[in-house]
Design a protein that fits this description.
mainly alpha; 2 domains
């Protein structure tokens, strides 16, 4: 760690430099603890207000409602196509994952299950 003046604070032979480095570490730790507490309070407020989820990865239904709707329409056909056939039809209609791949069977299954909840 270098100061504005160009002093190297990582040298351990100078007690003053050691103290400055430790003080900087204390303030960094304090700031992190305050940030974590502030974010926790914000998540708790959002949860208490019923404004939806405040943690975790978003579901496919939240990020791609159009793909879920299309999957449900395909799944409603008689006879019901397999999960892999639904995935293939979605891919033909250009409903693909963020990585450019077709949805897996387990993703299709979760789409259909989440819509029925």
């Amino acid at each position: 760690m270098l100061t504005v003046a160009g002093d190297d604070l990582t040298r351990t032979d100078d007690p003053l430099k050691i103290a400055v480095r430790q003080i900087a570490g204390v303030f960094a730790q304090l700031e992190k603890a305050r940030l974590v507490a502030r974010l926790k309070r914000a998540r708790e407020r959002k949860k208490a207000a019923g404004l939806g989820r405040a943690e975790g990865r978003k579901s496919i239904g939240e990020t791609r409602p159009d793909a879920v709707k299309a999957a449900l329409e395909i799944a409603a056909r008689k006879p019901r196509p397999s999960l892999l056939k639904i995935s293939a039809e979605l891919a033909k209609a250009r409903y693909i994952t963020a990585r450019g791949r077709s949805f897996s069977a387990s993703q299709i299954s979760r789409m259909i299950a989440s819509a029925s909840e």
